[in-house]
Amino acid sequence: METFTEQQKEGRVARAIENRTSRIPSDFFLWTSVGAIAASAMLALLGRKHSALFVGQRVPTVLLLGIYNKIVKVAGHDVSERQLH
User: Fold this and answer.
1) pTM > 0.85
2) Least CB-packed of 10, 23, 66, 69 within 10 Å?
3) Residue 33 sits in which domain range?
4) What is the number of alpha carbons within 13 Å of residue 32 lying toward its C-beta?
5) CB-based contacts of 16: which residues, under 8 Å, 6+ apart?
């Protein structure tokens, strides 16, 4: 039977991603989303409907990446491992 600590360990790829993404400021994701919204609105006003939709569809993805970034900073593998030792 696995112990609690063995179940909580992340793989090498997940650790590498967390180490990289935790360095990005949270504001980056917010302002990138706001920029995509503004670009999408501008493209729509210019009559480029398909381009506006394409750019606008990036907003939820960027915001989700920002949420992932925040979770990694607050509850990433390094935080849980420090608390267990």
Assistant:
1) no
2) 23
3) 26-84
4) 16
5) none
Q: What is the pLDDT of residue 33?
A: 97
Q: Which of 4-8, 21-25, 41-45 has the highest mean pLDDT?
A: 41-45
Q: How many CB atoms lie within 10 A of CB 42?
A: 13
- How many degrees, rounded to 5, is the angle at CA 81 between CA 75 and CA 10? 75
Q: Is residue 73 part of a domain?
A: yes
- Whether 54 is covered by a domain: the verdict is yes
Number of domains composing the chain? 1
The count of residues in the chain is: 85
List all residues 6 or more positions away from 81 whose beta carbon is below 8 Å from its beta carbon: 8, 9
Q: Tokens for 12, please give them.
A: 């090498």
User: pLDDT tens digit string along 47-72?
Assistant: 999 999 999 999 999 999 999 888 88
Question: Looking at the domain assignment, is residue 8 inside a domain?
Answer: no
